[in-house]
Specification:
mainly beta; seven-stranded mixed sheet; seven-stranded antiparallel sheet; metal-binding; KduI_N; 4-deoxy-L-threo-5-hexosulose-uronate ketol-isomerase; zinc
Amino acid sequence: MENRYASHPREVKAFDTARLREEFLIEEMFKPDQLTLTYTHVDRFIVGGALPVNGTVKLEADAKAIGAATFLERREIGIINVGGAGSVTVDGEVYALASKDCLYIGLGAKEVIFASEDAAQPAKFYMNSTPAHKTYPTVKAAISEASPNHLGSLTNSNERTIYRYIHTGGIQSCQLVMGMTLLKDGSMWNTMPSHTHNRRSEVYFYFDMPEDGVVFHMMGEPQETRHLAVRNEQSVISPSWSIHSGVGTASYTFIWGMAGENQIFEDMDPVAMKDIK
């Protein structure tokens, strides 16, 4: 499991492109028949991917790395399938996940196993995990069961629908909030106008992008912005002090996960367009 450490915004001002990518971009989420995990000290997120092709993949991490005998001994996890049909088996109970279905697993589950229905079109399980203090039930939600919120306009190139899976009005959790944003045809901007939320950090995962597509993810303090060039199926760690907006060269979808002091989706500090530098 790779480790990432928290960075002070004053230091980030001096980072070059390579250092920005090293600290904030997770470039490879999926490896065939493997589990990939990145542990960030920003709100103790673990960001991961599982790509079962020729067999199953088990959710596990080195006991020393997470300080626990099992992955979910002191954690909860949200999983969204971004590939072909598959399943997640939680302590013997099987949950079938089609593309864009979500599964929440609460603290205390001992065995989690990922599988694909068809090796030619394998499932891709993207996951966010955060520390937990109590157990909530394991719950599956299809995208049709998520709470939609329509925002933006085609005039501003940011017409989009936000689907909330794990949130105060949906699947219950200790601190994890998770959902997906689908942009309308012709819209390329996300999360613009920008905002920060000093009480929560966030992780973005960009996917459904063409091979030559790029999302320019804007980050940094509102008056000291930087950018990351993000390709298909890559993740960005966004500290609480950073904006997290982006614009693509072609259509894309992204999954967002948040953790921190509260779970109130609307708790954010807007940044006026005139203040962006």
